[in-house]
Amino acid sequence: MVEAHVLVLNRFYQPVNVTDVRRALCLLYAGVARALDRNYRQFDFASWTELAAEGGDDTIATSARRIIIPRILVLQAYERVPTGRIRFSRHNIFARDDHTCQYCRKRLPRRDLNLDHVIPRSRGGKTNWENVVTSCIACNFKKGGHTPDEARMHLMRQPRQPRWAELLHPPRLRARYREWLPFLNVVDASYWNIELESD
User: Fold this and answer.
1) What is the C-alpha to C-alpha distance for residues 116 and 146, in angstroms, rounded to an integer?
2) CB-count exposure of residue 137 (10 Å: 0-12, 13-18, 19+)
3) What are the extents of the domains in the chain?
4) Any idea which fold 90-143 has?
5) Which residues, in sequence order, are CB contacts of 171 under 8 Å at separation 6+?
6) In the chain, is it the N or the C terminus that has fewer CB atoms within a 10 Å radius of its CB?
7) pLDDT of the chain along its 199 residues, tens only?
């Protein structure tokens, strides 16, 4: 359950990140964020830990009790939506490629993935968004110092620098949990973010 995903919203209920359970509970404990339940009510850490686990809810055990894993957190002071430069990092490359080997198309856990230079560095290939892809260990070994054509391996898609929306809304996370749908679907998200008329 520690590997489960938690959607992180800014204080205007716009998605800004997807994180793991450990980080989510740290944010909740520190008071930086509040958890949303199935009815979209906000809870701080103390009140969240008092919730009884309903049938079917995923939980994590502590020495004192079982805590329901939150599906959604709302940051209390963060207003921005990510824009600008996306860091060229292993995490972001895996997210761009949806943790899927770009050669054999297998979706694998991070521990079974590494990075591959499409044009090998030994042949002048650069380490950048357009030349680095997610690869399983077997495919990386098979390809070796060859180009994909020489190794008779085909890329799922040409690598490129992703946009923020692609990292926040990869296909596998869109419908991962029912609770996420109102925040990831553009039409439903407008319901939460439209300015209301006051009397």
Assistant:
1) 11
2) middle
3) 5-82+171-193, 90-143
4) DNA Binding (I), subunit A (1.10.30)
5) 98
6) C
7) 556 788 888 888 888 888 888 899 999 999 999 999 988 899 999 999 888 665 456 888 777 778 888 999 999 987 666 666 678 888 889 888 989 999 999 999 989 999 999 999 999 999 999 999 999 999 999 999 999 999 999 999 999 988 766 666 554 445 467 787 777 665 455 555 555 454 3
In single-letter form, the type of residue at position 84 comes to G
CA 78 to chain centre: 18
**Strands 72-75 and 5-9, how do they pair?**
parallel
Q: What are 45's two structure tokens? A: 């850490």
* Token pair listed for 198: 């006051």
Residue with tokens 């989510």: 24
CA distance 157 to 51: 45
Q: What is the pTM of this model?
A: 0.54
